[in-house]
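Request from the bench team (R.T.):
"We need a structural guess for the complex before ordering more zinc ion. Sequence and SMILES attached. Just send the tokens back."

Command: build protein-zinc ion structure.
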Amino acid sequence: MAKACKPLALRREGEGLLIEWDDGTRGYIPFAKLRQACPCASCAEERAKPPNPFRILSSRELAQTEPIRPKAMVPRGFYAYQIVWNDGHDTGIYTLEQLYQLGEKREDSDRQPDNTDRAATRETG
Ligand SMILES: [Zn+2]
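Reply to R.T.: structure attached below.
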């Protein structure tokens, strides 16, 4: 793995997490995407199962009445955060590298999310 970046700032923005990294980039991770990427063993097992067409929503998803959100992010050592979700799930420990890779890169936090993908590929610096 490449040199690990460190987060300078983490904040909630809309329904996602905006992280400023020490290499000057910003990564935006929608909470739903962050939750789906949960690295814990039980979620990994859940993702590895073949899709069941008769179970469109898990019992957890059916029980969930509000949008998924982290209730807390607890630093674990110097390289990871444990995220406590509002659905009660709290066993996922996300490494900084994972958070960095999940982030949708933004060079300007004030820009609207639409069209940023195309703009980013055109950018020459
Ligand atoms: Zn999990």
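Two things stood out. Residues 38, 40, 42-43, 89, 91-92 surround zinc ion (CB under 6 Å). Residues 26 and 86 are 25 Å apart (CA to CA).
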